[in-house]
Write a structure and sequence with these properties.
The protein has 90 residues and is α+β, with helices and mostly antiparallel strands. It has helices at residues 36-50, 52-59, 65-89, and strands at residues 2-9, 21-28.
Length: 90
């Protein structure tokens, strides 16, 4: 049985009356018949689906907004070139 727990918090700088933001955290409920390896594999799959590791790597170091824009532009250019290559091959 897999469940997603919820974490509620108020964003920094918001007033006390502001609505809370809800984040779903991945988790695995163990049953008596489950082995540790199976549970770990299921947990890793949930973490990957939720994008926790990629978010962690992204936030590991501060990135200036100008660098973020450059990376976003480069990714868009890369996607466009890939799409053009696919169209040319067909």
């Amino acid at each position: 049985m897999i469940y997603l727990s919820r974490l509620r918090f108020r964003a920094k700088g918001h007033s006390p009356g502001a609505p809370e933001e809800v984040i779903f955290l991945p988790g695995v409920v163990l049953e008596d018949s489950d082995s540790f390896d199976v549970a770990l594999r299921r947990f890793k799959k949930q973490i990957e689906k939720a994008g926790v590791l990629s978010e962690l790597k992204k936030r590991q170091h501060y990135e200036k907004p100008s660098v973020q824009r450059k990376k976003k532009k480069a990714a868009a250019r890369k996607r466009l070139l890939k799409k053009l290559r696919k169209m040319n091959m067909s």
